[in-house]
Each structure stands twice: as structure tokens, then as C-alpha cells.
């Protein structure tokens, strides 16, 4: 049974001097061009969320480290035994290698954080159900901009809605975690606050989705509210006048086309997006089935990639 795979991979990366996952994957391809060491799954392996199932990965790993032991031994060995073996084989001090592995992990984490910031930075069109009781059943549009700053916590977001009472502008920190993307947005000159709880980001990042929690801005009484939200990446910033409530019979696909996102088969996409935003409940907690959101990701990712330079 495989054990300590994440720690063993970090020690291997430190020994080889690789920082990014793609460099580690390239090293595996160097010993076997057809290796099953997959770049996409390596992220989960390094985080300890999964482990390679193919024995060939461990065989390639043994060749990469030039060990006498077979691949199965790498999978099953205790961590101290694995560390001692690679140190002895390559003449490396154990304490030094473990120190480098720790530094490597911090460097890799910082690299991934910067990479995520660059991937998320941009402008987005947001669609959600109106929280105001005066616009019950309608959708409201907002614009979101995400910027990546320096440091490990440099992602910030600004969200804007064009309301009949004037512009609503909120801003705050964006936090990426293994199981979600979160943003706590506050109004600088008022009391309004929204919290976004979204599916984790995936490349190329054409669309985000999840829930927005907050209070109704326009209404006779304060009402804690929850709504699904769809956040579509734009290639160009939306005009200042864009936004606000959509008429009940308006098409989201046509609205996106006015912003330069002309989706193929707009009628089908409208039905898909409407179903996503309305959602349903079986009497339990309000939760979005991952497959439902992934179907939308597939539509927008394919469109984004087809129109990329």
C-alpha cells in the first residue's frame, strides 16, 4: 500500500532541484517519454489528496532516482527508509535534503499562488437572482474585477452593481483553498456586505460559479439572503452603464454577446444558465451538484479556447 507519497515527491523534487510541477513531470518524461506521471494529477499527489494508482509511475520513479529498489518499494517504504536510501544513493546529507524539501515546498506554494493570481486576474460579468423583494424572480447583473498583488495573499476583488438607487461598489480579499474560492466583499462608504462561496478555479478559467450570501439592498426590511451566482470572464471591461436588473424575458446569452462573449447555440445555453441560477432544493442544504456546474464550465471553456489568440 502506497504511503507518504506527497513527502516523497517533495524530497524527490528537492533532490532534483525542480520547483514547478511541470519540471518534475519533465524529469519523469526524461526516463520514460510515455510515463503515467500526469501533470494534472501531480497537484493532488503533492498535496496528499491522492496517490498514483499505476505501478509504472513508481517504476519510473525508481529509474529517475537511480535506485536499486523496485518501484513497489518506493510506494510501500516508510518515509525514513526512503529518505535514507536516496541520500545514500546520491551522497546527500539527510538534514540538508529535508531542509531543502521544506524550502522547496514553500517556494512551490508561492509559485502556485502567483500562478493562480495571474490566472484569476481579469474582469467578469456576474449574474444572480435579485435579492430585493421588489424585483422577485428577476436576475441582476454585476461586474467583478480581480487583481493580483504582491505576496501570498494579494488577490483582491471589486464588485459593482448598477441599482436604481445608484452604484453599489464593494471590495475585499479573495482566498483560494483546496475546496473552494472565497471572497468577503464590503462597501467602503456603507454597510453592505456580500460573501462569495465559489467552486475552485480551473483552467482556463472562463467561468466561476457558486453562491452569494448577503442582505437585500433595496427593500423595506433587512433580509438575509442566498442566491446562486454565475461569473463569466470577459476579454474587455464592461461599460460603466452596463448592469442592473434584467427584464424577466431577457436572454443572458444575448446580454453576454453585447459584451463580446457570443456563445454558440444561445437558446440552449439560456436554458442551461437559467436552470443553474434558479436551482432547486430537496429539503436539505442548498448545494450545487458539481456535474451541473461542470457542464457550464465545459461550454465557456470551449468558447474561450476557440477564440483565444
Produce a short descriptive summary:
Helices cover 40% and strands 24% of the residues. Helix 1 packs across helix 7 and helix 9 packs antiparallel against helix 10.
Write the layout of secondary structure elements.
Layout: H1 5-16, H2 21-31, H3 39-46, H4 55-65, H5 71-76, H6 79-90, H7 94-120, E1 122-129, E2 139-148, E3 155-163, E4 166-177, E5 180-187, E6 193-198, E7 207-215, E8 224-234, E9 244-245, H8 252-257, H9 266-278, H10 290-306
Antiparallel strand pairs: 1-2, 1-8, 2-3, 2-9, 3-4, 4-5, 5-6, 6-7, 7-8
Helix pairs in contact: 1-6, 1-7, 2-4, 9-10
Give a structural overview:
With 309 residues, the chain is of the alpha+beta class. Helices cover 40% and strands 24% of the residues. The protein has ten helices and nine strands. The protein has helices spanning 5-16, 21-31, 39-46, 55-65, 71-76, 79-90, 94-120, 252-257, 266-278, 290-306; strands at 122-129, 139-148, 155-163, 166-177, 180-187, 193-198, 207-215, 224-234, 244-245. It has an eight-stranded antiparallel beta barrel. Helix 2 packs across helix 4 (55-65). The longest helix is centred in the middle third of the chain and has 27 residues, at 94-120. 26% of the residues are buried.
Amino acid at each position: 500500500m502506497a504511503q507518504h507519497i506527497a513527502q516523497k515527491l517533495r524530497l524527490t523534487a528537492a533532490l532534483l532541484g525542480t520547483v514547478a510541477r511541470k519540471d518534475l513531470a519533465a524529469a519523469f518524461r526524461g526516463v520514460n517519454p510515455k510515463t503515467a506521471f500526469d501533470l494534472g494529477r501531480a497537484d493532488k499527489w503533492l498535496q496528499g489528496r491522492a496517490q498514483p494508482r499505476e505501478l509504472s509511475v513508481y517504476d519510473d520513479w525508481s529509474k529517475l532516482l537511480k535506485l536499486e529498489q523496485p518501484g513497489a518499494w518506493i510506494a510501500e517504504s516508510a518515509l525514513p527508509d526512503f529518505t535514507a536510501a536516496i541520500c545514500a544513493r546520491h551522497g546527500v546529507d539527510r538534514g540538508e535534503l529535508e531542509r531543502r524539501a521544506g524550502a522547496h515546498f514553500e517556494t512551490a506554494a508561492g509559485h502556485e499562488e502567483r500562478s493562480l493570481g495571474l490566472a484569476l486576474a481579469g474582469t467578469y460579468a456576474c449574474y444572480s437572482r435579485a435579492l430585493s423583494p421588489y424585483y422577485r424572480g428577476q436576475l441582476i447583473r454585476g461586474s467583478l474585477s480581480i487583481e493580483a498583488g504582491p505576496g501570498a495573499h494579494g488577490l483582491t476583488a471589486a464588485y459593482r452593481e448598477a441599482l436604481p438607487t445608484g452604484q453599489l461598489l464593494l471590495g475585499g480579499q479573495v482566498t483560494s483553498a483546496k475546496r473552494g474560492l472565497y471572497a468577503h466583499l464590503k462597501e467602503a462608504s456603507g454597510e453592505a456586505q456580500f460573501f462569495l462561496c465559489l467552486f475552485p478555479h480551473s483552467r482556463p478559467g472562463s467561468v466561476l460559479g457558486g453562491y452569494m450570501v448577503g442582505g437585500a439592498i433595496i427593500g423595506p426590511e433587512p433580509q438575509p439572503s442566498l442566491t446562486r451566482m454565475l461569473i463569466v470572464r470577459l476579454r474587455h471591461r464592461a461599460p460603466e452603464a452596463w448592469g442592473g436588473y434584467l427584464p424577466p424575458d431577457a436572454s443572458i446569452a444575448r446580454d453576454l454577446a453585447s459584451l463580446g462573449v457570443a456563445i454558440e447555440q444561445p437558446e440552449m445555453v439560456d436554458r442551461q444558465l437559467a436552470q443553474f441560477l434558479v436551482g432547486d432544493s430537496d429539503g436539505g442544504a442548498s448545494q450545487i451538484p458539481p456535474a451541473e456546474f461542470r457542464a457550464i464550465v465545459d461550454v465557456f471553456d470551449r468558447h474561450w479556447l476557440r477564440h483565444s489568440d
